[in-house]
Each structure stands twice: as C-alpha cells, then as structure tokens.
C-alpha cells in the first residue's frame, strides 16, 4: 500500500520525506542525528503550512514525515542498545532492560550452576550406593 507518492513528469517519483529503514542501518550516528534534525525541521514547516491552510497533499505528507522520524529514532535506539550490550558483555551485572526477556517463573528458577550443586550427604549416598546395572541373560 504505497502512501501518497507525488508523481512528477515522465512517471518519476519525488521524495516525500519517506525514509527506508534499510538505508538507515548503514549510516553512522552523526548522519542519523543530522537526518533526524532535517525531518523535524520539515515537520515544523508542514505543520505551519497546515495552520496557514495548505494543500491536502501537504497535510498527507505530515504522516510520512512523522513515521520517518520514528524510523530514524528506532535505529538510533537500536544502535545504542547494541553498544551497551557490547559494553556489558562479560560483566557480572547487566541492566534489567538489556537482560533477555523471560517469564517470571524462569527468572526465579535455579541457575544451571545452582542446579548442579550436590550436598556432601548426597555425594556420600551416591558413592556408597551407586546405580545398579542389570544384565539380562538370553
């Protein structure tokens, strides 16, 4: 569902403030900030035109610019979170929002290390009474 693309001469399309997320992933932080500022500036201009009684096409463009701003912010946020994950990798504690999302029951479960621990009494029992192996004669 292509939304509000202004078609110019010879069937060419003009940019309407839309941004593709695939193009944004390759950009660095400064470029993303710069693009975000440009989009916000464009949104301000469109809103002033709306108040002044602009054309319907300008009003429709506000939607696209807002969504583009959201895309840029999403990628900036994802990049920051990826950097934080790298920073906290191997550390004893990580922030709650960077930990894997799990159910409450799984979070309260014993860790694999805690589950492997065997008490001294149980070790003695296992040593003195090992599991018996039975062989069946044919």
UniProtKB/TrEMBL annotation:
One of its GO terms (molecular function) is structural constituent of ribosome. Pfam families: Ribosomal_L29. InterPro entries: Ribosomal_uL29, Ribosomal_uL29_euk, Ribosomal_uL29_sf. Keywords: Coiled coil, Ribonucleoprotein, Ribosomal protein. Residues 22-49 form a coiled coil. One of its GO terms (biological process) is translation. GO terms for cellular component: cytosolic large ribosomal subunit; preribosome. The keyword Ribosomal protein applies. Belongs to the universal ribosomal protein uL29 family. This is 60S ribosomal protein-like protein L35.
